[in-house]
Structure formats: structure tokens, C-alpha cells
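Problem: given the chain below (737 residues), write out its structure.
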Amino acid sequence: MADFFDFTPYHVLMAVTGGALLLSWWLPMHLFRRPPAGSALLMLSGFLLALLFPGATAFLDPAENPKVWEIAAELVVIVVLFATGLRIDDPGRLTHWRPTIGLLVVTMPLTIAAVAFLGWWLGGLTLAGAVVLGAVLAPTDPVLAGDVQVGPPLQGREHPVRFTLTTEAGLNDGLAFPFVYLALHLAVAPEGGWLTNWLLLDVVYRIAVGAVLGAAIGWLVARLLFSGVGNRRLADAGPGSLALGAVLLGYGVVELAEGYGFIAAFVAGLVCRRGEEDHRIHHRLHVFSESIEQAVTAILLVLLGSLMPALWSELDWRHSLIGFGLLLVIRPLAGRIGLAGSGMRDGQRWLTAFYGVRGIGSVYYLAYAASHIEFVNEHALWALVVYVIFASTLIHGLTARWAVRRLLPEEDAPKDAPPRSATPPEAAVAGRPGGGPLHLFVHRRVVLDTLTLRWDTLPMRRALLLCLALLASGPLRAQVEPWDPNAVEVDVELLLLVDVSRSMTPRELEIQRKGYAEALVSDAVIDAIGEGFLGHIAIAYVEWAGSYAQRVVHDWAIIGSRADAEAFAATLTTHFATGMRRTSISSALLAGAGMFEDNGYTGLRRVIDISGDGPNNDGGPVLPARDRVLAQGITINGLPLMTQEGMGSQWQLEDLDRYYTDCVTGGTGSFVIPVTDWAEFASAVRRKLVLEIAGLTPAPAPPRATAPRLIRAASDGTYDCLVGEKIWENYRNNWEP
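Solution.
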């Protein structure tokens, strides 16, 4: 019974998530006279959850497990889109949709272009990565924008501002997909030749299929609901859970037809709503959909908030500029341009342009893109998207109701109550319809009040400003490295990661251990240690293979003399272990980076020295893992083993040295030393250790028959870093038992 109180992370996560959900809904009722949306508090609860229980959400890393986030976000979005279509009591005439068309045709492409430019210019993204960022962040969210959308079915409240924001959120999630596919084309074939295919297939065909089949399925569902006579009609006796069947049917059929299921879900709800428009079944369907939406969204927001402590370190001032630039400058200005000629009054245009809420849809798009594109800095992208969602929940979520009351007071009055003013407020101030200079000032002042968070009470304003200060300062504080006053200072913290995958023979494994032991006690290495600034180094030796196969042969130890080196080397040759399955360079790098934390040493430099005889074929892609390690200030050097001898010749690459240069190594002064013959292994290791210990900037050695050549690690970014995964997939597809 020793493990009777062995708290598993899964159950801890369940308990604290439940507590966070309850607290997030209870707290606003006691702090605010008019409780705002609870989205920000849900994310803040998740943030505190991760700080108090850091291990509870480690398995939710979106870069490592994007499929979990993709499926969860996809389910929420399609249910909400169907419910959004059900909300619209009166679709009106085409002129009623003019503002929506402007936001979709003008505002969204402008937003994508502006965000993509900032991602490329400030964020250092590739063109494909920048376009993905724009497509991920451009759509407004149907999930978190309830406060500015139309009310439930049969309740009206379809003010032009609410109608526009509702229909925009219903359609632009699907209309962002062509830009995701555009980024995929740019990544796969940057030289071009795909534009016609993109326009005809990804733009015209997929949108048309989504709209047409969505309308057909909405009509079919309405027929099923209202066919029959008397009390035998499904609409009269059926439960609200019928909505789930309609959603899954519509989305699944359209996706099978290669259309955009998001468009279909919204259109299906909109068309279904036209069947006996005053029937209560529409309300039941919406209530059920809303229940699913609120439950899953609340959990997702708590879990998204729990990612923030881990992702915060990926952010810097540039990400803050992109995030706040999108929310406070790009979307409002692009929205204002898109609404020109819409027929809305100026204040309504500014309100509609400003409240482009970001949320769960962005999570889905990034998770989807991450499964199709190998991002160079995936964690930074996730950090930026989560950061923008959090900022949107603060800025939009906590001010939406207040702003709507200020700009649209008459439409929120009870239907049986007289309007608060027979004349629109801005026309009354300006003295004539259409307003004037004072009219423009009044509504810009309302937007300014929204941005500066002029709320009802001073304590509330202070609390809100404190949250925004945390939001703005988080990326700056995240750049400060923790300092351990008890750590031993050394010249370098050097981690040796040694490949022991089964593609290597027992003889090769023994050569590796003996080669490292011989190099460590060589005069050249001992002299390099002694000539260092502090005269000693910290070193560890770890063997690795598949995703979960890392074996610590010798944990961190200090070497400052020959005796220390001999003691360390003796451990390596005491016995020789067997190999392990698969090859996961990505997992080895991430596990190795984790070993630097709290290891008891503080080095002037931190270096990972990784050897291997093949490319990554297990675990996550190697590039994102490499970039996460480099972001921690760790240099990665490589020792590609190109001996062409082992049992796994099908996994070997003729240009493994280039693979290591482009995909594995990096950082200040990084380099690669290929080994083409086991006879030169010990000398290659010795040379590499001397360079790493001395912190020298390597230069290629003159060609000699006996000297291992050295390559400065400088990637040109053109190598296919998924080549190992492709070889493995091809092997699996062609393998017959």
C-alpha cells in the first residue's frame, strides 16, 4: 500500500480543472455588478493550475500532441457553428449581408496579409509559416463571441451589429481554410506551379461543396423534423440532442466530399432554422448545442491557460507587438475598411470592427497545420496563438457587454419597454441624421473608453489593468533565466548523447563506449580542461534510441583533473549494454535539454554533443525539438556515424552529415564532424571534445586522409528534415508478415 496516496497527474488534472471551472463562474458573481464573460478567468485558472501542479498538464504539450487539440477544438467549433446558424431568426435580404460580405472579402484577407507580414518581418517566420500564422489568427471566433452576437432562436436581438458579427463568425472559420492550404502549397512547392490548382480546388470547389451540401443537409434535417402528422412529428417529441446528429452528419459528409465542413455546419444550421421558424424545436436544438459548447469550451480554456507557464518562455517583445497589433490596430482598421459602404453608422462600424474575438478556432487551425507542415519554431507559434487568445479574452471578453450597452442601448431594452431614446444617441448629439464632427468624436471616445477599460468601479479597473500589465510584461519576464546561488560554476556543461539504436552492432556499441573513454583521458582533452577559465567542466553520458529510450550511463559529474576523467571513463567500460529500438533524435534532444535543469552546475556555456547513424524516425519531428533546445541557449554539435556497417542499412543516408547540419545541430559555434570509418572514431571524439571544452570557433580542417573532416553547422533550410519519418513509413507500407 505504499502507493495508496500516489496522486496521478491525470486525476490531479481532473480535480483542479473542476475546481477551476467552479471558481471561474463563482468569482465574477461576487466581484462584478454585471459579471463579464468568464473566458479570461477560465484561462487564468488554468494558468494558476499549471503553476501549482506543473506535472499535471505536461502531456498536453500541443507541439508534441497536436492531434488532441485538433480533435477537441474541431468538435467545439462545428457544434457552435451549427448553433450559430440556428440563432439567426431572420436572414433578411442580400443588403442585410452587405457588412458581412465586406468583412469576409476585404477585412479577412487584409488581416491575414498584415499578420503574415509581421510574422515574417518581426517573428522571423518563413513565408509559409507566416501565411499559416495569418490564417490561424485572422478568423473571428464563434465560440467566445456570444456577448456580441444575436440571441438564441425566437428571442430576436438581431441588431445589424450583432447580425454582422454572428454571420462573420459563422462563415470566416471555413473561409480561412483556403489560406491554410495556400501555406501548405508554399511549404511543399515554393517554386510555384500550384496557383491554378489552389484557386480551382481549395477556393472554388471546397467552398461551393461546403455551402451546397451544408444547405442540402440543413433542408434534409428540417424535413426529418417536420414530416409526419399529429404528435408523430420528430420536432414535437424529439430531444435537443438531435442537433448533434445533424452536426456530425453534415460535417462528416462534406469532409468526405473534400469540402469545407465548417462552412457546411453553419449553413446547415441556418437552413434548418427556416423550417417552421416559430417552432420550439429550434430552441431545444440550440440549448443542447450550447450546453456542449459551454462544457467543452470551458475545459479547453482552462487547459489552454495551463499551457501558458510552459509557453511563456517562448515569447518576447516581438510577439507582444504582433498580438496587440492584431487586436488593437490591424483588425479594427481592416474591419473599418471592410465596412465602408455597408450602410452602418460610424459608431456601429467601429464597434463591429473592434470586436473580432479570437479563440478556439485558432487552436484548431494551428493544430491542423502542425500535422501537415514541419514548423521551425512550433512552440513559439503555439505560444503566440495562446497569448493572443488570452489577450482577446481580456480585452474583448471583459468589455463587450459594457461596450454594447454604450453603443446599442436601445436594442437591449425589453421588447415591451419603450426605447430609451427615439433618436439614436449619436444623431441626438450631432443634431442631425448621420452625425457630424462631434458624432465622430463621441463614438471614437466610446471605442477609446473600451480600450482603456473605463469600468464601473475603481477596484475593477485596477484589477483589469493588473491583468493587462501581466499580459504585456509576461514575455519580457520570461526572458530572465533563473539563477541558482548554490550551483557550482564550470566552464561548460557538456552532455554526451550517444546513439544505441538496434541498427548498430554490439561491436559498434563497444567501440563507441571505448572511444569516448579513451578520448576523455587523452592529454589533449585534459589540457583543454585545465586551460579553461575555471579549470573544470560538468559532463554527463546518456545513451538514446526511441521516443522513451534514454539511458543515463553516468549522471552529471565534475572533471577538473586526470583522476576525475579516469573515474568517469572507467564507468563507461565497466560493462556494455545492448541496443534499443527506433531512432528519436527529437526525444533525445528534449530529454537532454531537461537534464540541464537543476543539475547543480552553472556553466559559461551549455552544449549537447549528439551522435547517431541515421535520421529521426520516431517521436516528434526533429526541427521543432532542435529549436526548443536552441531557444534555451544550448548549443548542439553532431557526430554523424556514416560507416555503412550496421544492421540497419535501409535507414542510413548517404548525406547524413548534411542532415545533421540542416536538421539537428545549431547554436553559437556549432559544428558537425562526420565519421566514415570506425578506425577514426576515437580521434573524431577527441577532436570534438577539445573544441567543445575550449569553446573554440571551429574552422574546417585541411583535407587529410586520416583526419575527420569538420563542417560548420550552417543550414540553408532546403533539406527535407522528415526524410527519416518517410523512410520508416515506406518501410511499414511495404512490409509483409
